[in-house]
Amino acid sequence: MEEARLVNKADCTSAGHYRFGRPGVECYCQHESGAAVIQLQFLINEGALVSALADDSVHLWNLRQKRPAILHSLKFSRERITFCHLPFQSKWLYIGTERGNVHIVNVESFMLSGYVIMWNKAIELSSKAHPGPVVHISDNPMDEGKLIIGFESGIVVLWDLKSKKADYRYAHDEAIHSVAWHHEGKQFICSHSDGTLTTWNVRGQGRPIQTITPHGKQPKDGKKPEPCKPILKVEYKTTRTGEPFIIFSGGLSYDTVGRRPCLTVMHGKSTAVLEMDYPIVDFLTLCETPYPNDFQEPYAVVVLLEKDLVVIDLAQNGYPIFENPYPLTIHESPVTCCEYFADCPVDLIPALYSVGSRQKRQGYSKKEWPVSGGNWGQGTLSYPEIIITGHADGTVKFWDASAIMLQVLYKLKTAKVFDRNRSKEDKGSTEVSDEDPFAIQIMAWCPESRMLCVAGVSANVIVYRFSKLEVTTEVVQLLEVRMQSELNETDSPDGGGEPTSAHHTPGASPHTSGPPSQPSTSSNNSDGGNMPCLKVRSTPLKQSAGYQVDLVVQLVWVSGEPPQQITSLALNSSYGLVVFGNSNGVAVVDYIQKTVVLNLGTVELYGSNDPYQRQPRSPRKSRQPSGGLCDINEGSATSEDRCKSPTSVLMSNTNLHQFYNGGGRGAKMSRKLSLPTELKPDLVLLSVCPPRGANPLDHRDNSFSRSRSSSVTSIDKEAREAISFFHFCETFARKGDSTLTPCLFVGTSLGTVLVLVLTLPPAGEQRQLQPVIISPVGMLVRLKGSVLRMAFLDSSGSLLPPSYDPWYEPNVTTDGEEKVPKRRPVSVSPSTSQELSESQYTVVCSEKQAKVISLPSQTCIYKHNITETSFILRADVVQMSQGVCVACFCANGHIKTLSLPGLRPLMDVNYLPLTDMRIARTFCFTNLGQAMYLCSPTEIQRITYSQETCENLQEMLGELFTPVETPEAPNRGFFKGLFGGGAQSLDREELFGELAAGKASRSLAQHIPGPGGIEGMKGAASGVVGDLARARIALDERGQKLGELEERTAAMMASADSFSKHAHEMMLKCKDKKWYQF
């Protein structure tokens, strides 16, 4: 049964939403109230679902449409809902409440019946106290007229619906959590709060026939076993050929401290304890039949965990789990950053899937995933899409986002590059930063060449190449870079010091300058919140097919000062260069020759064009803690700012200067000015959720609503200039140039765009030997706010992507040396033969405005102030089907698009007010009108502003409901039918209908019609079974009417015939008479 299996994948969450369907059929439903879902009940094979919420409301969903809608809602006002039960093929829903009463609801009309089972009538004199809330309701599998009601206190009542009284009552000392029937209806089993299971005969009221403590230690003296943790749920499933299955969650002994949550499967004499990674929310046993009065034949157990869904195969020895096709591992470790790529090369997803499929664990069940409800949608996007997520534990995951659902392709563990073994001294001094030292901060990826570069929170950059072959790397290539901001002799305690350039050390340091180089006197108090450099492993590294380490670059401690975190990153495969920057300056690394090409401070990039008139550098003679760049009382670096996750600032680029003044070395000096100790741990902690001790609204109030003054005359702001964006291109480097030159454009947090000219050696052997030369040219343009994005257009307005090398297999060699690509860099510009007389346009977007500069004249031809009152968190230059545009997401929730090159506003939608830093950190646009962000720590939200995708969306959605024939009910057998055995049916309409039971109290619950519409209401509430019954009745009525019509016609014909006969006789009698004889 398709929909009987559909129940397997209805994940209810505390956020009030759930999903359905087979792999590829995914639907997202959410209640407007946002209340937690406490229970779900399918109307099996009828295309409807009942949900019960923690706010005491019950809802009926129509699943017959691609986007499910609520048809009816019922809101209880005087009682709290604790349990719901909907019998198979019944339209009457039993609802148990906290007061101990049971109410009955008609699921077609969603109206309450006047039939109520009151708690005092149910227990009568068997207990002097209130029995507590209803924790279980179910009807006897063999007699629908008998209802078992479990109360929390330990009382169970077998209620006769017809006679409206209790047949039997069963009392136990321990609280009850759940009840399960044997399919013959003669026994039931209860789970209790002391870890015991009690089995009861229906007709035996005294004591249970069996009491066991599955995980309790049995004392030798025959006393009761020690109590265990509560068994929260139990299920009792029978088989034709063997022993029954008793499956339950919880019940472990109290001395198993630290043991993970378990599901226990008892089958005959064997007991299997299955450990889970997360706490168990609920579980459900999948059986071959939907009828409760037949042998159940269980074949799998679906276990819903707090952060996962596990399906266990009961038919195989060892109970292996099924391989989960759903993307539930996105939050296996908190997501710290993500990137979205649409219209990727077509061979990329197969390549990633090929290497990712080799990573799968062994030991899964050999059977297919058992959840098979619904059908796939017909329409799909015509282009591949890939989402990359970086995580707090250092993993990078690649996801296929081409269809409606995400599918994980490949998982990369960057932490393997580093040595995890640390001495006890190090652990003591870095107890906080040990939480996420490998967290991914920024990612740069070239889809065409498949080169990947990641920057970590510990100020390290790793370059990866993609290979289909396994390789063992004897020594991981390491480059150590010193980037240090020197202070002027005229440092002042009030934060007015002048910054000077980075310590210029192009070469690699001879050793890793990590935590051991910290001053021992300050390791415990002043450096506790800093992230020390990680130690790269010295042993050989076996690298499987996929992404393999090519080079590790580390920023090292200098004179006891930690390196500043990396704020921007870019790579170019045709140039063989990786560039990264922070608040100190820029470093360019040649990953082909494994050398540092450039290491310059931000000031030196300006050359003689420095607009701030900074004083000449001078060596720093001493380090005085009083001369910090940041005072603890400065409004721009509040304690809330210090508590932020670094990436929350990095991705939005809104508070780079505040953060980098307050983090790293500024943080060290500030702590010497008595920074509260409880704020230290979160200075460098990466987490998807807002940091401890800080409300996300506080983040918004303190960092987003403050004035974003773009004044560049302030020495205070000048001291905080950080690198915010890089862009490689082939363009006109200088004003009036006539030839295209490889360049690197650098954007800063003060809105400046600087140009560096690249001189590259010829391809081939020369590229391996001759150095790359980089020359700063100076400033191109200045904008308000930090630079977020740059792009280049040709003279016709078409996008000019950076050049790239096509991918090649790096591990295939003929002479023992690394293979060198022999092709020249490929330029993917639409106008490949660009004439010298033609110009280019560079587009620069900052937090406040966008400008289009004509090159080589370097004149601003278009300018647009995007926002005055807010600021932009994310901007991307995206290729649409009709052209190129700038897409922006503002902190006030607006999504805006501007045309290029004219910067004409195309769209302004108030989409989503910024409620926490997670959205700012993860929001990104991509080509063809797609965008995404993390709407919660566990969910990616994809949105589109493309008309084409919107029109195709309905076809892409899958069908949730597939009507199938309901299996035949179990045969009663000759003797059971003869002697009255077998299942007893019940006319519930006769008992619960308005004629028999009357109307329910209006004040008890309020009926709310849903937005599903009248037609949907009829369709979903009635279902296939109802439709067939109605059709059958209609046919009977039509046949009856036809029969009546036929009888009336026959009677009329007989009457006409009689009239004709009488008329003929009359005519014969009167034929010979004269007129006067009448």
Name its key features.
five-stranded antiparallel β-sheet; 1078 residues; disordered N terminus; five-stranded mixed β-sheet; globular; WD repeat; alpha+beta
Question: Would you give an account of this structure?
Answer:
With 1078 residues, this protein is of the alpha+beta class. The protein has a domain at 333-357 and 381-420 and 436-483 and 533-561. It contains 18 helices and 58 strands. The strands form 16 sheets. It has a 5-stranded antiparallel beta sheet, with helices on one face. A 5-stranded mixed beta sheet has the order 30-31-32-38-34. Strands 7-8-9-10 form a 4-stranded antiparallel beta sheet. β24 (298-305) and β25 form a beta hairpin. The longest helix has 57 residues, at 1014-1070. It is globular and about 125 Å long. Residues 1-16, 423-433, 487-532, 616-718, 814-837, 974-980 and 1014-1026 have low confidence and may be disordered.
Count of DSSP-assigned helices: 18
The CA-CA distance between the termini, in Å, is 83 Å
Order of strands, widest sheet? 3-4-5-6-58
Q: How much beta, percentage-wise? A: 25-35%
Low-pLDDT windows of residues: 1-16, 423-433, 487-532, 616-718, 814-837, 974-980, 1014-1026
Morphology: globular
The biggest sheet amounts to:
5 strands, antiparallel
- Helical amount: 10-25%
Class of secondary structure makeup: alpha+beta
Q: Using DSSP, what is the number of strands?
A: 58
Mean pLDDT across every amino acid position:
76
